[in-house]
């Protein structure tokens, strides 16, 4: 892993890719600061002709010592062509740039063998004469059995003179009297020359995933079932990476954290650019993907991707990231940040097997349940919500609520600079006043009643000065208090249901 700057991370590694219903195949991932590249191996012409990959025609001669020097696997019985699985060490240098391990044999001396069984291809090669012209193409997605090791003593891998039966699961050797320890030097003149042509096996781009506004998931779509050491990345335009299978759990987490870090950095940079077009009180604090749990548990799809944004005084919930100014008016739902309550859920509060979840309760009592992929994503959301709430409280400065105390209509003012003031609604007479530094605790029933605990500055005793406050409408103050007490550097241990706001 290469760390270029604090805001940019690059990473390269080998993984398996499950693409649709195909068997997993080996790919290379390369993570740049703004893109994830998924690459597969291919054989390309790198000199003499335009850059391309495709079929090649190669002529080779059978040697007295070493024969063709090739081993093959596969066949039509496995729905693939026969593939070169080994090239002998003595002949590797002569075949450089001509044949490669992984090449599928398509034609032999003009005979189409694409759909031939393994034994049929072996027989064609045995009877091909001293000079053989092969048409080959590199097979980029070879089945797993092609990776089986060569077994020189395997009874199903006969020599070129053997009359035994070959097997598509083992390497059928096509080498007269060849042995790995043979040190005879082969004449270079016996091999074909292709002046001006040079072929190389390289990693070529299979899929490019731009990271801005991309999302990734370890879970099966819409469920709480987590894949083992695997994930997928989905671009904002819907292009999917396929299922990326890592070698270990540690490797999987490393990739997810690296991808999440680059997505986060791109999002922050994008927010800065967008905020140039918005006034100070409408600045974006947070944008990012989550998955919302459907309240109707009878549905097959438990979770749906949602894009959340904290901008100005509002929390926006979108189906897709907002790109234009008009998009901000088309949010699926909008909430005032000081009228909602956020709860970071502990393990005991989780509703299913998904981790890293949080809940949002609105003024109407609507409960929303969200899941993010990593703990770092959850921390990022929590800090952003704190910031958005504090900025809105700082902007509003003061808010007064109508309430009832002992059947009397009262007014409760929460002032950002002064603290709490309770007064008679009819006479405006102040009944009591407390600073934020005197607030030592609060609790509520989650609906309309709240209890404050203040400390008397003279006696140092805790006084429950306010009991049974009934607020109409929803008690917005329980969302104000954490931001205000934090600004005053006062610890306010919330209790009861009000404890859901602790730490915000």
Automatic annotation (TrEMBL):
Domain of life of the source: Eukaryota
CDD domains for this protein: PDZ_syntrophin-like (cd06801)
InterPro entries named in the record: PDZ (IPR001478), PDZ_sf (IPR036034), PH-like_dom_sf (IPR011993), PH_domain (IPR001849), Syntrophin (IPR015482), Syntrophin_4th (IPR055108)
Residues covered by the PDZ domain: 57-140
PANTHER family in UniProt: GAMMA-1-SYNTROPHIN, SYNTROPHIN
Domain called PH: residue spans: 283-390
Family statement: Belongs to the syntrophin family.
Chain segments annotated as transmembrane: none
Function: Adapter protein that binds to and probably organizes the subcellular localization of a variety of proteins. May link various receptors to the actin cytoskeleton and the dystrophin glycoprotein complex. May participate in regulating the subcellular location of diacylglycerol kinase-zeta to ensure that diacylglycerol is rapidly inactivated following receptor activation.
Keywords: Actin-binding, Cytoplasm, Cytoskeleton, Nucleus
Compartments in which it is found: Cytoplasm, Cytoskeleton; Nucleus
Protein name stated in the entry: Gamma-1-syntrophin
SMART domains attached to this UniProt entry: PDZ
SUPFAM superfamilies, sorted: PDZ domain-like, PH domain-like
Any Pfam family matching the protein: Syntrophin_4th
GO MF annotation terms: actin binding; structural molecule activity
GO CC terms: cytoskeleton; nucleus; syntrophin complex
Organism of provenance: Cairina moschata (Muscovy duck)
């Amino acid at each position: 892993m290469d760390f270029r700057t604090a805001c940019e991370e690059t990473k390269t590694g080998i993984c398996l890719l499950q693409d649709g219903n195909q068997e997993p195949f080996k790919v290379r991932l390369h993570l740049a600061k703004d893109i994830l590249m998924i690459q597969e191996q291919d054989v390309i012409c790198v000199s003499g002709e335009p850059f391309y990959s495709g079929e090649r025609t190669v002529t080779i001669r059978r040697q007295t010592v070493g024969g063709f020097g090739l081993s093959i696997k596969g066949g039509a019985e496995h729905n693939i062509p026969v593939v070169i699985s080994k090239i002998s060490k003595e002949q590797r240098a002569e075949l450089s740039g001509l044949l490669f391990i992984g090449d599928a044999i398509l034609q032999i001396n003009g005979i189409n063998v694409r759909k031939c069984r393994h034994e049929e291809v072996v027989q064609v090669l045995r009877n091909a004469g001293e000079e053989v012209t092969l048409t080959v193409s590199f097979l980029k997605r070879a089945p797993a059995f092609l990776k089986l090791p060569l077994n020189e003593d395997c009874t199903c891998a006969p020599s070129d003179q053997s009359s035994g039966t070959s097997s598509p699961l083992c390497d059928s050797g096509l080498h007269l009297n060849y042995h790995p320890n043979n040190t005879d030097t082969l004449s270079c003149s016996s091999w074909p020359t292709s002046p001006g042509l040079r072929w190389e096996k390289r990693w070529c781009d299979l899929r490019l995933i731009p990271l801005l506004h991309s999302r990734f998931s370890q879970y099966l779509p819409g469920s709480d079932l987590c894949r083992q050491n695997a994930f997928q990345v989905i671009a904002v335009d819907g292009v999917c990476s396929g299922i990326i299978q890592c070698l270990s759990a540690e490797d999987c987490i490393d990739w997810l954290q690296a991808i999440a870090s680059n997505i986060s950095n791109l999002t922050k940079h994008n927010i800065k650019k967008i905020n140039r077009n918005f006034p100070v009180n409408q600045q974006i604090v947070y944008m990012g993907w989550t998955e919302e749990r459907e309240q109707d548990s009878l549905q097959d799809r438990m979770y749906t991707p949602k894009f959340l944004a904290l901008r100005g005084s509002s929390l926006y919930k979108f189906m897709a990231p907002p790109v234009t100014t008009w998009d901000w008016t088309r949010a699926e739902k909008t909430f005032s940040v000081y009228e909602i309550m956020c709860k970071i859920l502990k393990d005991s509060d989780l509703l299913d097997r998904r981790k890293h979840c949080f809940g949002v309760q609105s003024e109407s009592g609507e409960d929303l349940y969200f899941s993010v992929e990593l703990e770092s994503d959850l921390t990022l959301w929590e800090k952003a919500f704190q910031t958005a709430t504090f900025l809105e409280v700082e902007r509003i400065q003061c808010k007064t609520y109508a309430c009832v105390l002992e059947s009397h209509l009262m007014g409760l003012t929460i002032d950002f600079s002064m603290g709490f003031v309770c007064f008679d609604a009819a006479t405006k007479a102040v009944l009591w006043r407390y600073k934020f530094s005197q607030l030592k605790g609060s609790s509520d029933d989650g609906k309309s009643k709240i209890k404050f605990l203040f400390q008397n500055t003279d006696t140092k005793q805790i006084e429950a000065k306010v009991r049974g406050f009934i607020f109409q409408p929803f008690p917005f103050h329980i969302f104000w208090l954490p931001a205000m007490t934090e600004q005053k550097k006062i610890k306010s241990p919330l209790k009861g249901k009000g404890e859901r706001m602790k730490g915000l």
